[in-house]
Amino acid sequence: MLIQGTSITVTYKKIEGIKKVYYNNESILKDYFNEATVLPIPDDAPFDIPRILITTKNEHAQLNISPIASTCEVHFDAGFERDWQACSRYITKRMTKVFEFLNILTGNTYEYIGLVSNVIYDEVEQEGAKKIAENLLNAKKINNIYDINIKYTFVEKENLFVNIMLQNARLFKNGVAVNEAGALNVQDQIAESIGAVIDINDRYVFNIDSDYKSNSSMLDKLLETMGNIISNKLVTLIEKGDFFERHKNIYIYGAGYYGEKLYFFLKNRGVNVTGFIITDGHKKEAEMYGVPIVEISGINKELDIGVVIGVSYEYRPEVEETLHRYGIVEYIEII
Q: Residue 168: exposed, middle, or buried by beta-carbon count in 10 A (0-12, 13-18, 19+)?
């Protein structure tokens, strides 16, 4: 497993005069960070634009500070990329100082905190797309799959969102000019592995509990969960995990064009679809192809349910929010 990098994002209520606050407290960060670049951005510019950029001493990481969020982006090498525990220790030491700085401004009260890690499952060296399709989608009958992208979302430890995006990752010879015709032909490809983006955060509780407040101790929980996924769950998911075998009831969210196409895709893979889910107030028919159409409020959440999202890409964030609101947290997107 190759851990390419991890970003840590901390969101908070808007901090007024973030530049002045930094100048008054910059000494806190001096142990691990260089002098900051303070950008000449007007105070009334969009709040998500970073005002302050700070690299770490050896420039393996960069801290970006805006009035509403701070993100530390870390790139791993020198042996760290094969050792999550070493990565975790590196993050903890630097983020301890970041939180010491931020806590002066926030009172250690945050909206939510998240980690995103990019990894390469390089135990697979060839036919990464085929492996994902066969092991996760039971798609052995599909020939000549070139690229595949699949997203899993579930809730861990009752309050953490875990999003895992899997896709095949192609590696080409050095010096390939990717913008030239014929540059990405099979002869210049040296490997086709599997890439994963693992996104863990406590926004699940933030979304459903109006009184929720996160704090710096959440980072330890996120790091522990990331380690468990990288060391155990990701391997199990890629090597053994068929989503459709793990759930007794498979529903498709959406009964329109995309839902219909998805139904036949799954049917041809031998997947039995229990029903179609639609948003309340949009039900026009009782069934489609003999499969019941059910409004989401009528779903029995006590059942073992797995949902495949079957709507156009622009509506997927809205569907995800609806699923979360109704407590349905085991779903995938096939992109």
A: buried
Q: Smallest Cα–Cα separation from 284: which of 293, 274, 273, 297?
A: 293
| Helix/strand/coil for 212 | coil
What span, in angstroms and rounded, lies between the C-alpha atoms of 150 and 160? Answer: 20
Which tokens is 61 given? 């990481």
Sign of the four-CA dihedral 315, 303, 236, 84: positive
Write down the pLDDT at residue 178. Answer: 65
Give the closest residue to 297 by CA, choosing from 334, 260, 325.
Answer: 325
Please give the full DSSP string across 288-319, using - where no structure is assigned: ETTEEEEEGGG--TTS-EEEEE-S-GGGHHHH
Of 87, 64, 85, nearest in space to 6 by CA: 87
Alpha helices in the chain (DSSP H): 18-25, 84-106, 128-137, 203-208, 218-228, 234-239, 243-246, 257-268, 316-325
The Cα-based distances of 169 to 132, 141, 179, 192, 303 in angstroms read: 11, 22, 18, 5, 36
**Whether the Cβ atoms of residue 117 and residue 226 lie closer than 8 Å to each other:** yes
Largest CA distance in the chain: 67
User: What is the mean pLDDT, run by run of 10 residues, along the chain of 335 residues?
Assistant: 95 91 92 94 91 94 96 92 94 96 95 97 87 77 78 81 91 72 74 94 90 96 93 81 77 93 86 92 91 92 85 87 82 75
Instruction: Dig out the tokens for 15 from the structure.
Output: 């901090």
The pTM of this model reads 0.78
Closest to 164 measured CA to CA, from 177, 179, 178, 154: 154
**CA atoms of 226 and 241, how far apart (whole Å):** 18
Alpha-helix runs per DSSP H in 14-127 = 18-25, 84-106
